[in-house]
């Protein structure tokens, strides 16, 4: 009986402590310093804020957009020009001699007026002019008749503002060379076929190019040579289009430097004419 009384006494003591603690806790908590409460509360709030901010950042980051590639617009070309070569193998003796190291010849398969035409095209391209080159080799004899169907076909396929048939004159350098300032130029002559019933239109465009060249380098052109009647072609296919110009670029004895300087003047003059056409 004594042992049971001891257990009962201990139980009563435990319950007494528990009950006192529950009643006294509200009183005790009032004596805890306010700073301690604020600090604990602040830590809880800051932790909550940090977590919340992290979530917001994740939600606000947009998906990475693919990089935009802006394609450059193609250069706008102006005008429509055609270069062709009825006598495609006509060459310049100083050039062929330098290339082959042999006695100069007046005809060559590669060093000829076609290569000069490529130089002119390159200059015209720099000015933004749309330029086609037509390189069809035909036999030298009856060249205009053999070339005619090819030129006619090209003209029917596309509308051109200016067409130039590039040749080389057979006269010597004393007639085809100009010294202007400190530079030497190959002089240019023109041919107009008067058996073409509308040759006046070709002549007008030819004179237009001649005048533009003379404005830049006085004396760089020779004459506009009219040809018709017996013993000559008389049309030179100029009847196929009112703006076909037959141009004699230098002569048999002109050097590449002289020709290149003249080609630059021709290109600049053509650009001026095309600009005038575009304005209209």
UniProtKB/TrEMBL annotation:
The entry's keywords: Membrane, Transmembrane, Transmembrane helix
Transmembrane segments: 12-32
Family annotation (InterPro entries): Spore_II_P
NCBIfam families the UniProt entry points to: spore_II_P
Protein name: Stage II sporulation protein P
Gene source species: Sporosarcina quadrami
UniProt lineage: Bacteria, Bacillati, Bacillota, Bacilli, Bacillales
């Amino acid at each position: 009986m004594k042992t049971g009384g001891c257990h009962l006494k201990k139980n009563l003591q435990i319950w007494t402590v528990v009950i006192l603690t529950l009643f006294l806790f509200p009183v005790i908590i009032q004596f805890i310093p306010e700073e301690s409460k604020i600090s604990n509360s602040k830590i809880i709030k800051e932790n909550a804020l940090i977590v919340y901010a992290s979530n917001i950042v994740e939600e606000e980051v947009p998906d990475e957009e693919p990089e935009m590639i802006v394609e450059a617009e193609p250069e706008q070309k102006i005008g429509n020009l055609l270069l062709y070569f009825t006598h495609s193998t006509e060459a310049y003796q100083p050039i062929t001699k330098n290339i082959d190291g042999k006695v100069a010849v007046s005809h060559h398969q590669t060093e000829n007026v076609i290569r000069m035409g490529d130089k002119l095209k390159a200059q015209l391209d720099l000015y933004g002019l749309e330029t086609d080159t037509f390189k069809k080799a035909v036999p030298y004899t009856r060249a205009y008749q053999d070339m005619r169907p090819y030129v006619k076909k090209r003209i029917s396929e596309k509308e051109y503002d200016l067409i130039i048939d590039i040749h080389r004159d057979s006269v010597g350098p004393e007639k085809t060379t100009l010294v202007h300032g400190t530079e030497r130029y190959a002089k240019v002559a023109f041919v107009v076929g008067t058996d073409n019933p509308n040759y006046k239109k070709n002549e007008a465009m030819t004179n237009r190019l001649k005048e533009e060249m003379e404005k830049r380098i006085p004396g760089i052109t020779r004459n506009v040579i009219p040809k018709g009647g017996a013993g000559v072609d008389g049309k030179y296919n100029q009847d196929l289009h009112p703006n076909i110009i037959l141009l004699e670029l230098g002569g048999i004895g002109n050097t590449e430097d002289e020709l290149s300087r003249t080609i630059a003047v021709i290109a600049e003059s053509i650009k001026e004419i095309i600009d005038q056409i575009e304005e209209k």
